[in-house]
Amino acid sequence: MAARERAKELRRQIDSGQDPLQEKRERREAPTVEDIAKDYLERHAAKLKSGKTVREYINRDVLPLWGKWKAADVRRRDVIELVERKAQNTPIAGNMLLGVVRGLFNWAIEKDLLEQNPAFKVKPPAPKNSRDRWLNEQEIRQFWLKLDTARMAPECRAALRLILCTAQRSGEVLSAELTEIDTDRAWWLIPAAKAKNGLQHDVPLASLALGEVQKLLGVGRWLVPRRYTSKDAHTTVAGLSNAHAANQEHFGLPRFTPHDLRRTAATHMTKTCGVSRFIVGQVLNHVEKGVTAVYDRHSYDSEKKAALEKWDRELRPILGVPTKAKLVEMAG
Questions:
Q1: Which domain CATH number covers 58?
Q2: How many domains are contained in the chain?
Q3: Which three-class secondary structure state does DSSP give residue 32?
Q4: Cβ contacts of residue 331 below 8 Å, gap of 6+?
Q5: Same domain, 145 and 120
Q6: What is the reported pLDDT for 25?
Q7: Which whole-number Å values give the CA distances from 56 to 37, 93, 97, in the listed order?
Q8: Residue-wise pLDDT tens digits, 30-82
Q9: Is there a single domain that holds both residue 116 and residue 160?
Q10: Residue 49 within any structural domain of the chain
Q11: Angle made by CA atoms 93, 46, 129, in degrees to the nearest 5
């Protein structure tokens, strides 16, 4: 009976102008998620500054589950379940994974490989950061001290402290190369190709920051090398975020992210150190807008150095670390 019904269905399809065999061939030849991901990573993501992070999310979270699926078979429900599962332990990583999946399928649509994006209108699994979280003095001290016993690689501990001391972006700290750091002069050069705004940025290293850099100096290319890999690679933003998120309970503080450490430094520089917002913007390497900015090519190196040294002097008593003047006094 079943065979007879299938035969009738085939006859109906043929009579209506359909080609069942052609549909089967098209189904067989339709790209899998793995096929699309391979092209996307090679032809598009490799050109992005966030390309390494995108590749990590796809290889770790997407392909093990969906790799062999036909890309057209991925449904909205599948996306929701994937990102919600990711967000259970690391909420922000769930949001980032959603962005990666959405970008992958948008690219496939642009290349006429798919017709629909299963991530379309899927809401982020975690609330977006309000962008106003910063740590007060007590929280800074607790975070710094708890880092010593946090379950993460020593390189990640130093990277988090560097973000707080220098107010630089996570990705820029993690991708720093040893050749870009002059410990004798206490300066760190962020090349234009690595800076988020595409502008070269010189970062003065005050004493606390320089101390963390010196802990990381070693053999190899990267300041913060990636462990447990045969490749010459640095720790990724996702890797640092995951290490930080895994220790949220250990820190014993209201939830915050590595990026909030950058905001913490900027806030304290204006709030307690008396540094102007304009100079803090230079420390952060924010892009100015307006006609004046086009003509003003002053690097503000001396102003940035003064600002970060003020922050260093403010930070030391918060952490219970003697100031340089106190150290000289104690040595005498």
A1: 1.10.150.130
A2: 2
A3: strand
A4: none
A5: no
A6: 61
A7: 12, 12, 10
A8: 899 999 999 999 999 888 877 888 999 999 999 999 999 999 999 999 999 99
A9: no
A10: yes
A11: 25
Q: Which of 127, 152, 182 is the last residue of a domain?
A: 127
For residue 227, what pLDDT is reported?
79
Task: Please check whether residue 237 is in contact with residue 259, taking contact to mean a CB–CB distance below 8 angstroms.
Answer: no
Percentage of residues in the chain having pLDDT higher than 70: 84
Is 84 strand, coil or helix? helix
Q: Where are the beta strands (DSSP E) in the chain?
A: 181-182, 187-190, 201-204
d(CA 9, CA 112): 30
Taking CA atoms, 120 is separated from 10, 74, 87, 157, in Å, by: 35, 12, 18, 37
Q: Other CB atoms closer than 10 Å to residue 253's CB: what's the count?
A: 16
Would you say how long the chain is, in residues? 332
* Residue 182 phi, psi dihedral angles, 5° rounding: -110, 100
Q: Which domain holds residue 155?
A: 137-322
Mean pLDDT value of segment 244-248: 92
Answer yes or no: are the C-beta atoms of 258 and 240 closer than 8 Å.
yes
Tokens of 286: 């924010």
On whether residue 200 sits in a domain, the answer given is yes
> Distance between CA atoms of 147 and 120, rounded to whole angstroms?
39
* pLDDT band, residue 120 (cuts 50/70/90): very high
Q: Retrieve residue 227's tokens.
A: 């462990």
Q: Is the pLDDT of residue 239 over 80?
A: yes
List the one residue out of 257, 250, 261, 305 whose CA is nearest residue 279.
305
- What confidence category does residue 204 fall into, taking pLDDT thresholds of 50, 70 and 90? very high
**Residue 218 CB-half CA count within 13 A:** 11
CA 159, 160, 162, 168: dihedral to nearest 10 degrees?
A: 100
Which residues neighbour 62 within 8 Å (Cβ) at sequence distance 6 or greater? Answer: 33, 37, 82, 97, 100, 101, 104
Q: With 50 as the cut, is the pLDDT of residue 266 above it?
A: yes
Give every CB contact of residue 151 below 8 A, 6+ residues apart in sequence. Answer: 246, 247, 250
